[in-house]
Amino acid sequence: MRMYDIIEKKRDGHELIIDEIKFFIDGYCSGNIPDYQASALLMAIFIRGLNKRETADLTNIMADSGDKVDLSSISGVKVDKHSTGGVGDKTTLVVAPVAAACGVPVAKMSGKGLGHTGGTIDKLESIPGFRTSLGIDEFLANVREIGLSIASQTGNLAPADKKLYALRDVTATVNNISLIASSIMSKKIASGADSIVLDVKTGSGAFMKTFEDSVALAKTMIDIGESLGRRTSALITDMDLPLGNAVGNSMEVIEAIDTLKGKGPSDLRKLSVELAARMLQGAGKGSYDRCVEMAEKSIIDGSALKKLTELIERQNGNTNVIDDYSIFGESKHVYEYKANCDGYIASIRTDSLGIASMILGAGRENKDSIIDYSAGIMLEKKTYDKVSKGDVVARFYTNNKKSIDNAAQILDSSITISNDNLQMRPLILAYID
Ligand code: URA
Predict the structure, then answer these.
(1) Which of 69, 208, 325, 426 qualifies as a cystine partner to 214, CB 3.0-4.6 A?
(2) Average pLDDT estimate for 7-26
(3) Residues forming CATH 1.20.970.10 domain(s) in the chain
């Protein structure tokens, strides 16, 4: 078999057989196939596409390229939840304890944030002492004993995807539905859950900007999951505005704790309960209505908050943060970003808000950047809110005073204030299974 022939076949729009996909992935990972040939094939795939079978084969081969987590020592149906990435999306910190409190074991491997989107691991690491780097035995023992563990992805989980993603990133081949779906699902399959609930974001802060593309991505991931024997469903949710009000690591943890205390923002609570209910349903806990009721009850009776406390304790974090938010530490500089006219906020480009927060220190510009956990943006007003000139729209928190002007300029060009009070679009746009 020759890489040249595989590139030519896909370039001319033909279907690749499994052996050809395997030859490509094995050869690229071992270094026998050079970057320039892998790039040529990626571009041919980007233009010509992959069908369902090719996408599932690519996913499975990438999932098999490294370690696979064996969750068979944990009893019950193991359900994973994955968000395609957003701004202010701290749902895992709420959903995982809720699901675990309702008796569904959650063994979650998560990633760090990059670019304008945050990562669960960075948020958890803002809790003093919290360890996310766990050996597999410790990770599994925690799930067996307290029903919940959240750890950073091991370096060897779907390494083929890691290598290929880095190449896609520099060859303008990221934004293809088959490639995104196989990339995400290869890690989910290797993580070992029986059932997967996907939160596919749509809008200005998401990978997929339109509803139609988000549905297509969700359906492709569901097809992959089902064809590989995992019960998979997806919510399509709005990312034209950030979730909750906090964007930045420790501020987001505080907002998640507040939500588990029954005091958080209503959009965060609504989506978290919906995702948790879908996870409970995936684990066979009953009808949708019954699962919503169970998820709500775990917040009202405090059992989900208790589960988060157990998680923090188990992974060596300081559990006093639950009642004393000052332990997180505060930024040296706080800046009030104000409205420059009267009207209604018609839109705030969510990706720009994520970038502004990153510039203040909350995110990584490249993979070696160091995060300032207390930095970020707290929104006082969101899209659809009425504002008067001089009202505080957002508060910036940072330890780097110089970043404030830059962040303010980004917000200047990403907020539109109009005279019209626009119709709010629903947070949860669709459920697909
Ligand atoms: N997230 C991933 O893991 N892979 C992609 O290709 C895009 C988003």
Answers:
(1) 208
(2) 98
(3) 3-49
Residue 417 in this model has a pLDDT that exceeds 70: yes
Q: In 347-371, which positions are buried (b, 16+ CB within 10 angstroms) versus exposed (e)?
A: bbbbbbbbbbbbbbbbbbeeeeeeb
Distance of CA 111 from the midpoint of ligand 1 (Å): 11
32, 1 Cβ separation under 8 angstroms: no
Closest CA to 354 of 341, 365, 368, 338: 365
Is 80 exceeded by the pLDDT of residue 116? Answer: no
- The number of the ligand 1 atom at minimal distance from the alpha carbon of 180 is 6
- Residue 332 CA, ligand 1 centroid: distance in Å: 35
Q: Two tokens at 281?
A: 């349903």
Please name the CATH architecture into which domain 330-418 falls: Alpha-Beta Complex (3.90)
pLDDT above 90 covers a percentage of the chain that reads 89
CATH architecture of structural domain 3-49: Up-down Bundle (1.20)
Does domain 79-322 bear CATH number 3.40.50.300? Answer: no
- Start-end ranges of CATH 3.90.1170.30 in the chain? 330-418
Q: Which atom of ligand 1 is nearest to the CA of 179?
A: 6
Catalytic-residue membership of 82: yes
pTM: 0.94
Q: Identify whether 108 is a catalytic site residue.
A: no
Residue 424 is predicted with a pLDDT of 84
188 catalytic per annotation: no
What are the pLDDT digits (tens) for 307-320? 999 999 999 999 99
Is a pLDDT exceeding 70 seen at residue 131? Answer: yes
Q: How far is the CA of 312 from the centre of ligand 1 (A)?
A: 28
Residue by residue, DSSP assigns 150-169 as: EEEPPTTBSHHHHHHHHHHH
Is the distance from the beta carbon of residue 180 to the nearest atom of ligand 1 less than 6 Å? yes
Q: Which atom of ligand 1 is nearest to the CA of 174?
A: 6
> What DSSP element (H or E) covers 252?
helix 249-260
